[in-house]
Amino acid sequence: MGFTISVAGKGGVGKTTFAALVVRHLHESTGEVVLAVDADPNTNLGSKLGTEPGRTVGALREEMVSKREEPPEGMSKHDYVDYHVRLALKEGDGFDLITMGRQEGPGCYCYINNMLRTFVDSLSDKYRYVVIDNEAGMEHLSRRTTRSSDVLFVLCDKSRASLEAARRISVLAAEMKLSIRRKALVYNMLDSGASGPPMKEMTDFDAVYGLRKSSSVQSWIEKDESLLNLPRNDPLFADAARIMDCELRTR
Question: I need a surface site. Which of 18, 108, 140, 180 has the fewest CB within 10 A?
Fold first, then answer.
């Protein structure tokens, strides 16, 4: 069975940057190809990994609806959809990327969510590591985009609003009885030597970690440069690698 990592949090707290650094660290430390899932309609994960998203699940859905395509004789609709979604996989440097994207037509994301969830479920056994970058907020939980994870990282920053959002995400995950083995709060944008909230105050989480602020990462993001080339001694990358290694040791 693969090890599935989900990343969530309020918008603007750095969850996609953290997800990209985790993808890179897992590949570099294990040599495995990581399945990177961009489940955020804003599709930012690919750019942080140095690649374009390619064909998205949203575009695939619109194409199938507009053409009213039917599976070839002898092929089920599930297998037909699975075949096309596999074609949407974008191969990168140490990872395969699948992107949810936006739908162009009216209606809810239910069908896209189901396609993405089914695809991730079917591929999980084929990858040793799966990293899912969820959209901001709590909608992805209520729509069950993320059904099962070994660890759910919930990011926040110094603001009370993001910390309260992180708590609500943890509570909602428990209320919906999602299959999440561990929940970890990741306190981002810490000044050097500072620490996040103590574990005793965050009883909704199994662990609390801190990520140091990195001026280099902010500069790279503003220039839209790939984080795959970020120096390994960058404090944010070093912290992301340490956090991931800590969680892997809990297996």
Answer: 108
Q: Is the pLDDT of residue 15 over 70?
A: yes
Residue ranges and CATH numbers for the domains of the chain are 3-248 (3.40.50.300)
- Per-residue pLDDT reduced to its tens digit, 157-195: 988 899 999 999 999 888 888 889 999 999 998 887 766
Amino acid at 134: N
User: Helix or strand or coil: residue 93?
Assistant: coil
Query: Under the phi-then-psi rule, with left for phi > 0, alpha for psi from -120 to 50, and beta for the rest, what region is 176?
Result: alpha
Amino acid at 213: K
Q: What is the pLDDT of residue 151?
A: 96
pLDDT > 90? residue 221: no
Q: In degrees to the nearest 10, what's the CA dihedral of 169, 175, 179, 184?
A: 30
Q: How far apart are CA 42 and CA 209, in angstroms?
A: 26
Cα–Cα distance measured from residue 91 to residue 36, given in angstroms and rounded to the nearest whole number = 10
pTM of the predicted protein model: 0.87
Q: b/e per residue, 132-149, with b = 16+ CB within 10 A?
A: bbbbbebebbebebbeeb
